[in-house]
From TrEMBL:
<dbReference type="InterPro" id="IPR001305">
    <property type="entry name" value="HSP_DnaJ_Cys-rich_dom"/>
</dbReference>
<keyword id="KW-0862">Zinc</keyword>
<feature type="domain" description="J">
    <location>
        <begin position="14"/>
        <end position="81"/>
    </location>
</feature>
<dbReference type="GO" id="GO:0030544">
    <property type="term" value="F:Hsp70 protein binding"/>
</dbReference>
<keyword id="KW-0863">Zinc-finger</keyword>
<dbReference type="Pfam" id="PF00684">
    <property type="entry name" value="DnaJ_CXXCXGXG"/>
</dbReference>
<keyword id="KW-0677">Repeat</keyword>
<dbReference type="GO" id="GO:0008270">
    <property type="term" value="F:zinc ion binding"/>
</dbReference>
<keyword id="KW-0143">Chaperone</keyword>
<dbReference type="InterPro" id="IPR001623">
    <property type="entry name" value="DnaJ_domain"/>
</dbReference>
<dbReference type="Pfam" id="PF01556">
    <property type="entry name" value="DnaJ_C"/>
</dbReference>
<dbReference type="Pfam" id="PF00226">
    <property type="entry name" value="DnaJ"/>
</dbReference>
<dbReference type="InterPro" id="IPR002939">
    <property type="entry name" value="DnaJ_C"/>
</dbReference>
<dbReference type="InterPro" id="IPR018253">
    <property type="entry name" value="DnaJ_domain_CS"/>
</dbReference>
<dbReference type="InterPro" id="IPR036869">
    <property type="entry name" value="J_dom_sf"/>
</dbReference>
<dbReference type="InterPro" id="IPR044713">
    <property type="entry name" value="DNJA1/2-like"/>
</dbReference>
<feature type="domain" description="CR-type">
    <location>
        <begin position="129"/>
        <end position="212"/>
    </location>
</feature>
């Protein structure tokens, strides 16, 4: 008796069908599709009896997204299919899929993009430091539906058309005992594997919710321009739940000051204008510092135009210095020379005589 042989010809996995997207899908569409599929088929959401099947589907979904979201791998896959892709990866990094899958099972789960806020502060604040609470608004995974978009577990059943797989299989008879199988995205659930019967009452199927929290901003004395205040996990939760919420980062920006200029983060520079008499015979001045205390500046001899006077310890605080050390204050002196046209005859003669005696000494 001759037994007929049934040969099963299976097509390679269609990554586009697994994610339920077209072959021209862009990055945003791929990410959205992956998010929905991965949430619906996450092994932790399945019963013990379904866990093996969920894990297999989840691995397929992860693999599909890992390939299609990579421009070079997607090009190789589109041109030669999965067989060509495996050959390409054997010469590159064959462990990327496992790394993505491990993120869901105890691996180091990556963070989403950080939220960066620039904080413009005057030099007075950076000199003295400042502490205050501020209200921030950020997105978190919806605490009610946990990112499914459904109001309850009962409102998030498996699709009865694809049995929760997100794809359906069609078989085409090729004749003589041969046939070919294809899989494509389920028309009923749109490739999700699950149906939302009732939207979440909190996020209305957005899967994330905006909440308000207070953070305590503590600007240390001597903080330089570009100094960062980092609040871990206080950034927005992205829709791709492979990623944890990003950080909230405040970046300090120093405002320009009308009287002081900062140098090398710890030094200050100030301009002082004196008259010609003070340049020859000395002067006693005071500078009002950034915190209001007075800094005496005095000279007993001749001060040259453009001369710089250094006052140790009157600069900016050294950041995180437990001794409380400061940089220096540099005072640039400008001498104002009066116009001779404004000096009357006798006064001019007396003034010339005085200058002549001073210069001759």
């Amino acid at each position: 008796m001759i037994l007929g042989l049934l040969v099963l010809v299976l097509a390679e996995r269609d990554f586009y069908a697994i994610l339920g997207v077209g072959r021209r899908a862009g990055a945003a569409e791929l990410k959205k599709a992956y998010h929905k599929k991965s949430v619906a088929n996450h092994p932790d959401r399945c019963t013990e009896a379904e866990r093996a099947a969920c894990t297999s589907r989840f691995q397929d979904i992860t693999r599909a997204y890992e390939v299609l979201s990579d421009e070079e791998k997607r090009r190789v896959y589109d041109q030669g299919g999965e067989e060509a892709l495996l050959g390409f990866e054997s010469n590159h990094n064959p462990n990327q899929q496992q790394a993505l899958f491990n993120n869901w099972h105890g691996g180091a789960q990556p963070k989403g993009q950080a939220t960066v806020v620039e904080l413009s502060l005057p030099l007075e604040t950076l000199y003295a430091g400042k502490s205050q609470s501020t209200l921030v608004r950020h997105k978190v995974k919806c605490p009610h539906c946990h990112g499914t978009g459904a109001d309850s577990d009962a409102d998030y059943p498996k699709c009865d058309n694809c049995n929760g797989r997100g794809v359906v299989i069609e078989r085409h008879d090729l004749g003589n005992g041969y046939y070919q199988q294809y899989q494509h995205s389920c028309w009923k659930c749109g490739g999700e594997g699950r149906l939302i019967k009732k939207r979440c009452r909190v996020c209305h199927a957005a899967t994330v919710k905006v909440v308000e929290d207070y953070v305590f901003l503590e600007v240390p004395p001597g903080a330089p321009d570009g100094h960062q205040l980092v609040f871990e996990g206080m950034g927005d939760q992205v829709l791709d739940f492979r990623y944890l919420p990003g950080d909230l980062i405040y970046v300090i920006r120093e405002r320009k000051h009308p009287r002081f200029t900062r140098e090398n983060t710890i030094h200050l520079r100030h301009k002082l204008t004196i008259n010609l008499y003070e340049a020859f015979f000395g002067f006693n001045r005071t500078i009002v510092h950034l915190d209001g205390h007075l800094v005496p500046v005095s000279r007993t001899g001749i001060t040259q135009p453009g001369e710089t006077i250094r006052i140790p310890g009157e600069g900016m605080p050294r950041l995180n210095d437990i001794r409380g050390a400061h940089g220096d204050l540099f005072v640039d002196v400008t001498v104002v020379i009066p116009s001779l046209d404004n000096v009357k005859g006798t006064t001019l003669k007396d003034f010339r005589d005085i200058l002549g005696r001073v210069v001759s000494k």
